[in-house]
Specification:
6-stranded mixed sheet; 8 helices; 21% helix
């Protein structure tokens, strides 16, 4: 039996839901969410698109979060999932009318849905604040990952929708009319592939950084980034028809007064997915970032970063037969330049048990490097509790808070990262994305990190 993943948005139920025995929580019993969740080997998974609240859902964070979760209950129900199947929740919060982010309202809504007498399940969770979500005035957007032992039920829910299927290991959910699918399931028997986050290339190095001639407008930057990702997939034998999930972070456009050009992003996306030649449309979330500027390669004229998750349509030969990957790791294969700090992508062998961590926060204060080191130490401890280590990490996501001057200390983050990865003692380097965010649940935190790993 093979592994599966699912990302979903939260949902609300009125009846008691028992904890799911398809995954195991890691962390203290008194925490409101798990420090991490280990899925049983071979369970099918489902990725939901981001479910964003709107101003019609209420004026407070709690109201919008509850309405969002209730609406997303219907989303995952089409694949046969319930609240007890949710392994992981990622929440993007935005400021309210007073300019503050209502983390307490989100926590209150959470406690009405998870980790209570009606539903004892408490998934792993990441919470970050971003400048805005789409153009609907919502305060919160959610993604979920779910697990089940009933792939037949999940597949039946997809077949009933009569949607185009471009990969035999994928089960889409949603409508034919929508730009994206509401969610995507991955059937047992599929290997998975995570790309690192990709930024747009420079198209004219002699043009001023602040001009469109340097990297292009949003449409051009998004188009060129999707070309890079398409080529990345081709390098491992995959196509756009195999994409499970697209996650895009949009930066402000200085030539549009700092606005976020969602239309430009959607125009580029629609040139690659949901077309007559490529009818596939993956699950997706679009969030924003306050800046892509900063040291260590940060670029003020970059307006987008995109990452993919994909599924192999058949068991990839890279894990079996001639040329198969061997020791030191039989479950992972990394791709990319040997001189790069991170892998361009990581492939995961079918049947591997997966571990999804919370968005861990620093245990103390200090500069970016100090906080990042303490956060990684916490993740190292939680991985050990799950039976894994940093050599088993598939994908690592870092959320960095800009300093008071608006700059992002990527140097400090990279110094901490290379203490644990891509060094002589630990040569492994995962796929990775680094995204600036507006704030984190602890006001003095400069960084949060979540990761995905295999459990040997």
């Amino acid at each position: 039996m093979r592994t599966r993943l699912v990302l979903l948005a939260s949902f609300l139920v009125a009846v008691p839901v028992l904890a799911n025995d398809n995954f195991q929580s890691v962390g203290t019993s008194t925490a409101v969410h798990s420090a991490g969740v280990k899925a049983a080997a071979g369970v099918p998974l489902y990725f939901s698109s981001g479910g964003a609240a709107t101003t019609k859902d209420g004026v407070t964070m709690r109201e919008q979060a509850l309405a969002n979760m209730k609406r997303l209950e219907a989303n995952i129900a089409t694949a046969g999932f319930t609240l007890g199947d949710v392994m992981f929740v990622r929440a993007y919060l935005t400021p309210g009318a007073d300019g503050s982010v209502d983390y307490a309202g989100w926590d209150k809504a959470w406690s009405e849905v998870f980790n209570n007498p009606k539903n004892p399940n408490k998934p792993a969770r990441t919470t970050v604040a971003v400048p805005m979500l789409n153009q609907n005035g919502g305060l919160i957007e959610l993604e979920y990952v779910c697990a089940t032992r009933d792939p037949a039920k999940m597949a039946a829910g997809s077949r009933a929708l009569a949607l185009p299927v471009t990969n035999p290991n994928l089960t889409p959910y949603g409508t034919k009319e929508g730009r994206i699918y509401a969610g995507m399931g991955i059937m047992p028997g599929s290997g998975l592939y995570w790309t690192s986050g990709n930024n747009p290339p420079v198209i004219n190095k002699d043009a001023p950084l602040t001009s469109y001639e340097n990297r292009g407008d949003m449409h051009t930057q998004a188009h060129n980034t999707l070309v890079l990702l398409k080529d990345n997939l081709a390098g491992v034998g995959l196509t756009l028809a195999d994409v499970v999930y697209v996650r895009a972070f949009l930066g402000p456009d200085g030539n549009m007064g700092g606005k976020f050009d969602f239309d430009g992003w959607n125009k580029a996306y629609s040139e690659f997915f949901n077309t007559p030649d490529q009818p596939h449309k993956p699950a997706r979330v679009t969030a924003t970032t306050p800046t892509f500027a900063g040291n260590a390669g940060g670029q003020p004229n970059t307006m987008i970063e995109i990452e993919f998750v994909a599924a192999f349509p058949k068991a990839p030969a890279l894990f079996d037969g001639p040329g198969a990957v061997g020791p030191p790791h039989t479950l992972l294969r990394d791709y990319g330049a040997s001189t790069a700090m991170v892998a361009s992508g990581i492939a995961v062998k079918p049947g591997a048990a997966l571990y999804l961590s919370e968005g861990a926060l620093p245990t103390g204060g200090g500069d970016m490097k100090t906080q990042a080191l303490s956060t990684l130490e916490s993740l190292k401890s939680h991985l050990a509790e799950a039976g894994a280590s940093f050599r088993d990490v598939v994908f690592l996501r870092a959320y960095l808070v800009p300093g008071a001057d608006g700059s992002v200390d990527r140097d400090g983050w990279n110094a901490a990262y290379t203490t644990f990865f891509n060094n002589p003692g630990q040569p492994h380097k995962p796929a990775r994305v680094t995204i600036p965010v507006s704030s984190l649940p602890k006001s003095d935190s400069k960084i949060a990190i979540d990761l995905i790993a295999v459990v040997p």
